[in-house]
Amino acid sequence: MIARKLLLHTTAWVSLLAPALRGAESKVVSTGEKKPETPLLGFFGGAVVFDFEERLRFEARNNNRDFNDAVNDPTDDSWVLSRFRLGVALRPTPWLKVYGQMHDTREWDSDRVNSPGVGGTEGGDNFDLRQAYVELGNPQAFPLSVTVGRQPLNYENFRLVADPNWGNFGRTFDGVKLRLQKKGLGFIDLWAARPVQIKEEVINDSDSADNFWGLFASLEFLPFQTTDLYVLYRDKADNQPDLDPSNKLDPRGTWTGPAQRVTTIGTRWNSRKDALKGWDYTGEFAFQFGELWTGDRTTPRLGHRAFATALLAGYTFADLAWKPRVGVEYDYASGDRNPDDGRSQSFQNLFASNHAHYGFMDIFDWRNLHDARFALSAQPVKKITTTLDYHAFWLAESTDYWARGNNGNSTMRTTTPGGADVRRINASNFAGQELDFTITWRPTKEFNLLVGYSHFFAGDYLRDTGPSDDADFGYVQAQVVF
User: Fold this and answer.
1) Using CA atoms, how far apart are residues 335 and 270, in angstroms rounded to an integer?
2) How far apart are CA 217 and CA 200, in angstroms?
3) What pLDDT score was predicted for residue 257?
4) Cβ of 276: how many Cβ atoms within 10 Å?
5) Residue 243 in this model has a pLDDT that exceeds 90
6) Which of 95, 154, 182, 428 is 20 to 30 Å from the Cα of 401, by its Cα?
C-alpha cells in the first residue's frame, strides 16, 4: 500500500513540476538565509533581498510508533505536509542587516490530532513569525558582530544545537549572539537564548522557563580539519513547554523533557573537504553533568552524569563515473543504568536535528543508543543522487527508555502489554535494523525532488516488551527555494 501511494504521488508531482522547470537557467541562490552571489529576488543593488521557499511532502507510515499490525495507530496513515516561508533582508549599509521571515505550516488528510507537536503532528502553525533579528557588524572590516532577536542556531553538525530542516516547523530562538570572527582562524560565538514554542492560533513566543547559554569555537588552525570546542548550559524550570494541554495526556507516552540544569562540554574534529584526497572523517565527544528532575522542580531531583560520542569515516571514489562514497559510522549515547538509584545517566539531546544521523524514520535519538551505520551514495547522472544506509540499533541500557528522534520529547514504549515497566523486565537491548533508500533529482538549484523509502526490522527488544512487527516509511518531497 505504501509503495503504491508513493508511486502515484511521485508520478503526479513529476508530471506537474517538470514541465515548468524544463529549461530553467541555474543560478547561485540562497538556501535558508545565506546571501546569494547574484540575488534572484534582490533590489536596489542588494540592499533589499527576498527569499522564498515552498515545500510539499507526502508521507505514508505504518507501525512507526507501536510496531503492531493488529492496531491502527493514528500515525499508521498517510498525509501531506506543506511548508511556506517568505523572508526579507534589509542591508542599508555593510554593517547593518535587518531580517524578518514568516512561515506557514499545514498537515492535510491526517488522522493525527491537528495540534503542533501532539502525536508528532507537524501542521497547524499558520502565518506565524519565524525569524526577526538585527545584525550589527561587518566581518570584512571588524571581527566582532552581534545579532539580536529571533534567530536560528546551527552548530557541530546539528547533533546538539540546530534548526532542523526535515521537520516542518524548524527551530528558532529569541536571544542575543556575539560572534568574533577572523578569516583563516575561524569564529567564536557566545549566546543567551530561549527556544521559540510552536503554538496554534497565536503568535509563537519563547519559553521563559527554558534558558539556554552557549560558547562555541570553530577553529581552523590545522590545515586538514576544523576543530570545534563548546560549552552549553540549559536551565529548564518546567517539565512542559506551554503547548496544547492535551500533550500531557498523550496515551503513547509523550513528554517534553524534564526540568534540568545541565552543562554539556564537548569537541568535534571534522576533516576539511578535499584535504585528505578522498578520505573524510568526523569525531565528536560530549560529556554532561548537572541535575535533572523527574518532572518539574517540585518532583525528585536526580544527579546527572552522561556521555556521548560519534565517529565517522568515509572515502569518495572521485575518479569513478558515479563518484560513489562508502562510509561507516558509530554513534553512542549513554542511558540510565538503574531507574531507582536517584541518579541519571541518560544523555540529553538538547536542541538537535536527528534526521540525518540515526535513521530517516526518526525513531531514535542521541540518547540511550548504540548505532552502527554503513552508508553508500552515488551520482549515476549529474543531477541525480542516490543513497543507501544500513543501521543496526541497540539500546545502551535496557533499563532506560527508548527515546524517539525528537530530542527525547517522547518515548517509543514505556510498558509491556501486561502493564509492566519496560525498564524492569530484563529485555534484550537489540532494538532492530533499518534500511533507508533515497533518490534526489535536482534539475536546477532552485528545485529538487526527493523520493525515499525506509524499512525497520524489529529486534529482540521489541519481541521482549510487546508487539514486534516491522515498520515502513515512504515519502515524496518537492521543494522550491529562492
Assistant:
1) 26
2) 36
3) 66
4) 13
5) no
6) 154
SS3 146: strand
Contacts of 474 (CB under 8 A, 6+ apart): 2, 3, 5, 6, 59, 60, 452, 453, 454
Q: Which residue has the higher pLDDT, 73 or 310?
A: 310
Q: Kindly report the number of other CB atoms within 10 A of residue 334's CB atom.
A: 22
Cell 557541530 belongs to which residue? 156
What average pLDDT does the chain have? 87
Q: How many CB atoms lie within 10 A of CB 236?
A: 24
User: What pLDDT, on a 0 to 100 scale, did the predictor assign at position 408?
Assistant: 59
C-alpha cell of residue 138: 561587518
DSSP state of 119: G
Section 108-129 average pLDDT: 84
Bridge-based pairing of strands 471-481 and 186-197 is: unpaired
Q: Pick from 191, 115, 96: which is nearest to 152 by CA?
A: 191
Q: CA 332 to CA 335: how far, in whole Å? A: 10
The amino acid present at 6, given as its one-letter code, is L
335 close to 368: Cβ distance less than 8 angstroms: yes
Residue (of 234, 266, 263) closest to 156 by Cα position: 266
Length of the chain: 482
Phi, psi of 164 (to 5 degrees): -65, 125
By the 8 A CB rule, do 204 and 125 touch?
Answer: yes
153 and 198 in contact (C-beta within 8 Å)? no
Contacts (Cβ under 8 Å, ≥6 apart) of 140 = 94
Stretch 39-55: mean pLDDT, rounded?
Answer: 88
**DSSP assignment, residue 428?**
-
| Contact assessment for residue 316 and residue 324, using Cβ atoms and an 8 Å cutoff | yes
Host H or E run for residue 50: strand 48-62
* 3-class secondary-structure state, position 404: coil
Which grid coordinates are listed for 165?
Answer: 530542516
Question: Of 464, 406, 423, which Cα lies nearest the Cα of 169?
Answer: 406
Report angle CA 388, 393, 396 to the nearest 5 degrees: 150
Q: Is the dihedral of CA 243, 247, 253, 258 positive or negative?
A: positive
When pLDDT is averaged across residues 326-332 and rounded to a whole number, the result is 98
Across 429-440, average pLDDT: 98
Residues 6+ apart with CB under 8 A from 412: 65, 253, 363, 401, 402, 403, 404
What mean pLDDT is predicted for residues 435-449? 96
Residue-wise pLDDT for 169-222, tens only, equals: 999 999 999 999 998 899 999 999 999 988 877 888 898 889 999 999 999 999
pLDDT of amino acid 297 = 84
pLDDT for residue 161 is more than 90: yes
